[in-house]
Amino acid sequence: xxxxxxxxxxxxxxxxxxxxxxxxxxxxxxxxxxxxxxxxxxxxxxxxxxxxxxxxxxxxxxxxxxxxxxxxxxxxxxxxxxxxxxxxxxxxxxxxxxxxxxxxxxxxxxxxxxxxxxxxxxxxxxxxxxxxxxxxxxxxxxxxxxxxxxxxxxxxxxxxxxxxxxxxxxxxxxxxxxxxxxxxxxxxxxxxxxxxxxxxxxxxxxxxxxxxxxxxxxxxxxxxxxxxxxxxxxxxxxxxxxxxxxxxxxxxxxxxxxxxxxxxxxxxxxxxxxxxxxxxxxxxxxxxxxxxxxxxxxxxxxxxxxxxxxxxxxxxxxxxxxxxxxxxxxxxxxxxxxxxxxxxxxxxxxxxxxxxxxxxxxxxxx
Length: 366
Known about the structure:
By secondary structure, the protein is an all-alpha fold. It has a domain at 65-187 and 206-309. It is 73% helix and 0% strand. It has helices at residues 10-35, 40-52, 55-80, 88-105, 111-140, 144-166, 189-193, 208-225, 227-237, 239-244, 249-276, 287-297, 302-325, 331-345, 349-360. The mean pLDDT is 90.
């Protein structure tokens, strides 16, 4: 018989448990660093300095954070509906195809029309590719975990075909589209803030970061302040009770997966329109899978997702600088640190919930 769930105050469940998980993961990672003969305190200082110690480092950190916000929110919305969307990579890939086609085919339009239409096209592509697994589960009983995993491979294969046979750049040895027109891309943040007298170094950070912040607010309003959000949370908590209340679990499954896919499309907007300015292979770079950890650590709440996304942004940028300053601490070791954090925040979540419960209510946890 499974153990009864441990009840915690909302603030402890949302903030304290993830904080304890991260602290424990960093402690274990410190032991690994000691094992190779380096100082964990020095490594941590270098990592933080590389991520937050300069305007350029902060720019790169927020660029990574933007990707993780979109993918973390995508997974979080599905979580609230009781679904486990592992297809963020595939949904972002299809979103990238839609965005690229819009940027290429609608190039004669002025930028004020073209950019919003391309963003909407990306959201529509991601929503469509998320809706299909939701429809299959709702109407055919195909489990969304299996279908979203398989759809990742289908999206990758479709991208290869399109870039090689259909929309690839003529004469290029690399599978990629022609570069988008200058008015079809997002504005870099250093150019966006220059008219305000704010001077920033050139980094990949662009106006997609503002879209990510808007998405955080929109998802909060959707999940916690709307009838649809209430229906999503009800289905996620108890589908049978939702049915008795007149809510269709099948409809909510499809809607939640479509919203999830649209949010994953934000990754394509940031990468394809904001950084690469063309569609190329593997632009998702594993961000969709990291989004699962971001949603887990953030407890599905937009504030938690934002903080967890920032944490992984710091790890990505600071880890790159750390591996440069300390060659013995390779980028693979930084990936291991991220993996340990994911392990502690996900698989060992119950252990830390129990520890926090004992800390808050000594002797009252069996």
